[in-house]
Every structure is written in C-alpha cells, then in structure tokens.
Amino acid sequence: MSSGEKTDAAPQKPSLLRQLVPWLIAGGILAYIFHEVDFQKLAEALKSARASWVISAFLAYCAVYYLTDILSFARTYRWFNTKISFSETARLRFASFMLQAVNGALTEIMMVLYMLRVKKVLVLHASSSALFIYFNETLTLISLLAYCAFFLPAENRILLTVPGLGVSFWSLFQALVVLAWVLGVLWLVFWRTKARELAPKLRDSGLLMAFKQASLLNYGEVFFYRLANNLFSVFMNIIILRGLGIKAPLTLLFAAVPVMVNVAYFPVSAGGFGGPQLAAHFLLKGYASEESILAYSLVWSSLFFLTRTFTGLPFMRPVYRAAFPAQNIIAPRRKSKEGLKADAGGDE
C-alpha cells in the first residue's frame, strides 16, 4: 500500500451549490429550447406518438442496460477489489440509478462510500474500478462515432469550415476520432508492456490500480458489455423515433443516440432533462420539425426519470444509509437532583 493510499480519505458530500448547478444549467437549456417552440405543435407531436412502440422499446432498452451495467460492475469489483455477489451489485446499482435521476452529483460518491464502509475497499481502488469501466465505455462510444464519421453519406455531413483553423468541421471530427483511438491504443500498450516502468508514479497510483492488474480478457469482457448496451440503445431509439414519426439516417443515429443518452449523466442535465434536449435539438435538426424532435427528447427523458426512480426506490434507503451513515451524536443526559447532590458530596 502506497503512502497515498494510507491517507485515502472518504469523499464528502458535494456542497448544496454544486448539487444545484446541474438543475440550473438544465433549466437554462430547457428555457432556451422552449423559447423557440410552438406549444400547440408540440402537443400534437406528443399526441400522435405510438405509445406502445415507445414504451416497449424503452423498457427493452432498460432491461439490457441494467443487465450489462450490473455485470460490468460485479465483474470488475471481483477482479480488482473484493468478492461481491451479482445481487448485492444489483442493489447498489439500482440505488445509484435512482440517485442518478434525482441528484447526479451524489451518485459516484455513494458508490465508493458504500464500497469503503460495507466492503472495506479503499476509495481510490473502488474509483479505479469505475474508471476502468468508463474507459471501456468511452472506447465503445468512439467506435460508434467512428462509424458515423467515416460512413455517413456526404450529403448528410456538416460541411462548415471551422473558424481560425481553415478545415471543414467533418475533417476535424474524423481527425479527432482517429486521435482518440490512437490514444486509447497507446494507453493499452503502456499498461501491457514495460513502458509503464518509465512512469513509476503513474504505475503505482491507487486510482489506476485496475489498469495495472487488468488482462486483455478483462478489457474485452467489459468492452463487450458496454458495446452491447450502446448498440441496443441505438436500435431501440430508432423504434422510439419512428414511433414519433422521425426518420434520420442510420449512420447518423450511431453517433447522435449515444451522445444524447450519455449527456443525461453529465452535469448539464438534471433528472435526465436538459442535455438530451440540447443534443437532440442540434444533432437531429433538419430531419423533423423542432416540435417533433423536442417531443422525442422529452419522452425519452421522462421515461429515463421514471424507470430509474421506480426501479431504485426499493433499494435506495439501505444503500444510502450505508454510504452516508448519520452521525450518532448522543446528548449528555441531565442529572437528577439526587445525582447532583451526590457529586457535590463526592467533591467534598
């Protein structure tokens, strides 16, 4: 154990201001989006939706998401941290889903505090496992973006020139995707070869412990779980879009859907609202009316909030209490008159 790990302190709850920031940003985004919308057309778009398509597709997506997410964390915790059952991981993740929908700033803190206080896993090591999962998640997103970047028909591409750079937006997009893949491969090479000996502080960091121990099979398994989820998400969202009368190129949706879905977890969203509306507004523009696009993103965010809230509700209380135990401050009991007299006699 390194000296840094000996002083591994439990993270504190974020301040009230930090917890409110995503709500303020999401509120600003919604105000901007709604400012340009005809509410009567929005209501018509919502009424015309094929509810059975939309709800069935979203519930199917939830089932796959829950399964692949729980497997990702259960397997990763077992490899790098401690023995933990699938059912215990499920309870922990379901509780985090609910908190994610209501207060995203507390989600990751609750996860690592639960692992610290219940499973006795150091904060840095639990965070390392989560980081390993999100690294693989990022690789899957880059893969989907690459498909869009290089296979989207030319007539559907953004051909604007980037100010100050003199290159087209699409060429820059393709270059960034290639760069991201190169960096990902170099990261794997660093941990799988003697190159890591050149950076001993990085090699011995508790936060990167999972990367130090991971085999290629570990990477492959988690990558498979996250890719399966993202691919299924794309196809289920295509059904939801069709249920709302929106048709967009499949290649574009391989990039647009993952961006819209994942931005729901960023601090520009609250309760699943805000970020998804902004992403859909810009990425699907031109393929349907603004009201239809907004109807789609609002339906998606509403189902996101409801499914995460109701699936997490039964598990929230015990997990939250384990992660954030109330401080047991016992007030001194007031002594009786007889007790005070006895103390006075003792002093004499």
Count of helix runs = 15
| Rg calc | 25 Å
Shape: globular
Helix vs. strand class: mainly alpha
Most strands sheet: none
Distance between the termini: 55 Å
Question: Number of domains in the coordinates?
Answer: 1
The mean pLDDT is 87
Output the helix-strand order.
HHHHHHHHHHHHHHH
Low-confidence stretches: 1-7, 328-343
Strand content: under 5%
State the total count of DSSP E strands. Answer: 0
Q: Percent of residues in helical segments?
A: over 70%
What does this structure look like?
Helix 7 (123-151) packs across helix 11 and helix 7 (123-151) runs antiparallel to helix 12 (250-262). This protein starts with a helix and ends with a helix. It has one domain. The chain has helices at 3-6, 16-35, 39-47, 51-80, 86-102, 104-117, 123-151, 169-192, 200-203, 209-213, 216-243, 250-262, 275-283, 290-323, 337-347. With 348 residues, it is mainly alpha-helical. The chain contains 15 helices and no strands.
